[in-house]
Every structure is written in structure tokens, then in C-alpha cells.
Amino acid sequence: MKRRSFIYNSLLASGSMVVGTGCKRTGNSAQGASMQIVNQRQTAEKPWYLASGMKIEASDRDVNRMEVAPRYLLCMNCMRGGGHSKCIDDYRIAELFQRIDENPEMHLTLVGAFDNSGARTEFFYRQTPAERLKDLNVLQRLGLNFGDTRSARDLFTRLSGEIKELDRICRYPDNPYGKWPECELADGNCYSKGNKSLRYAQNPDEMKNQKIPSCQQIAESDHVVIRPHHLLCVTCFAGRSTDHVPLEEDNLYEAWMKFRENPDVTVNLVEGPGECCICPPCHSFVPSRGVCVASCHLRDRKKDLDTCVALGINPTDKLTARELYRRIGERIPHVSTVCGFEKDTSFEWSSCGGVKNGAYEKGLALTLEYLKI
Q1: Average pLDDT of the chain?
Q2: N or C: which end of the chain has fewer CB within 10 A?
């Protein structure tokens, strides 16, 4: 879609998404070139998955996306920590963060003076060298590139772990030959106070509202609908301790008890969280769309399919719990073959925490015993 530029003051009235480029607000106009806008069509058009009648797991990236300068992520954290500066006012950081806080699943595309190969973009001529360096420093620390798109929640979670202070981003060491301009908030503690993740997709009350009917459905149904890799999660749950009790954040206990009580129950395998019986109470599950917005969402997609490969099955297959766990005992004796990586290459592609604690192997032995395999 061809990009369009608008007068800066029209941003809120138009319902469009602002992109920080380095130009500053002066009176009723933008100094230099206008701010770059990406249309927010979600208020004017129905997302394609609603128009088609299909809701489960459909992407909303084309209608729920905003472009943002990487350094503005730092500005938003400073503001969240109580900081106030001319920069925060000039770039309307408060209004920018309000949009994100109201919609943490919004997709943010990181843009700036260069493209992903280092060639100059139109923003180059609107930014100071210090602004360009801040953007590059943020990208380097986060392991990202210009043009990368992540959910707002993922970016702020990543930020909280990788950039804990502003040294060498917004503050520089003393230099007798000259010093680059620093942010007036760099010496305070507002960034550290505001450097935290965004709210979960579901609060405790919403999780409870999903827990009760989903548990009832598991108990009353003559079959179990589950993601393939959650069969392994059930096994890890069984091996965590001898005190097995229901969990607030998932239905692993309920599925495990169903398998124990009826090893020949039919298991319907589904690819993804939308119909899976385990997912509804999770704090990262969005019931209205049937999607998981946890940082491990792509990793879990891969785990679903890797489990299928290991067991010689396909998503949509139907087998008994006994047969599935017989194959799991034979083909996946160690969970690292599915849930671990030889090398954790990024924030999104990190091994599951249960790979090395032995819970899976212990739980597998226990499950095979209960199911008389």
C-alpha cells in the first residue's frame, strides 16, 4: 500500500498510527517533513477473518500494525516510570503508549534512518546523528533489525530483559574532545521504574471465567481436543511432583486425569491453540481470536509439528490416548528432541524450561504405568 503523509496535528482525528521520524512538533505543524503514517483500517474495515466468518487463529497484522522508531520504546518506559521531558512532549509519547497499552497485541514494525541492509531511508534526512545512533543501539541490544515486526507485548518483554539501563544509548562517558547530546532523563531512575512488560492478555478473573467451562467440557466430552505438543506438556506436569492439583493457568491436570481414567478416550489432534482444551485459562490466550500471544507462540507452533513428525501422525488425526502415549514412550523418550534446541538463537527460539529438569522423563514413566502401556 502506498504510503501517505499527513499534517502532524491530524493524527488523532484521523485515527491513524503515528511513526516517529525525528521531526518535532512546533505549533500546529511538523518541523521539516510530516510524520509518516500507516493507516489503521481496523475501525473502517472488518478484519478479513471476521468478514469470512472464520475467527480462529487468524492474523490481524494487516489491520493492527504501527511503525515506530526503536528509541521510542525507551521513551515510553521513561514515561511509564514517571519521567517527563521535552522529547516526550514533542513526540507525543504518552498518546503513542496509550494506543499500545490499550492494545498490547498490536504489531510494531521498527523503522528508522536505514533499511535492513543499511541503505538510507527518507527518515535519514529528518534525524540527527544522535537519534540514528540511539535507534541502532536499541536494535543491536535487542537482536533485531529495521523492518522487523513484533507484537508490542513481545518487544516490551524483550526490552525489560535486554536493556536494563541507558548507558551508551542515552548517556555517554566523559570525553575531553566533545560529548554527544544526552537525554535529560538518562541520569534518573524513571527508565528502570518503567522498564516492565505489558499486561497479560487475560487477568485472573478472565482466566477463571475460561477455566470453569473448559474444565466442564473436558469432563463431559467423549473425546479430548488437544495440540500435539501439549501431550508432552501433560507428561511434564505429571512428573513435576507427586501432589497433582489443578492449575489456574491451564488444563493440564484435567487432561491428564481424563487420560488416566479412560486410556481409550479418543484424542482429536489440532494444530494451534484455537480449539485446544488446555489453553483457555492461560494468561496469554485471547479467547475472541483463539490465539496465544506468549513469546513462545512460534516455538510452540514448531513443537506441534515436530511432535507429529516424531509420532508419525498429522494434525486432525484421531487416536486413543493409549496409542498416542505408546508412541510417545517409544519415539520421544526425552523431551529435548522436541522442546529443546542445540542452540537458543533468539528470544523467540529458546528451549523450553522443562528440557533439563527431568520432569518429563519421570512423568512419562508414571503416565505409561497409569495407562498400562
Answers
A1: 87
A2: N
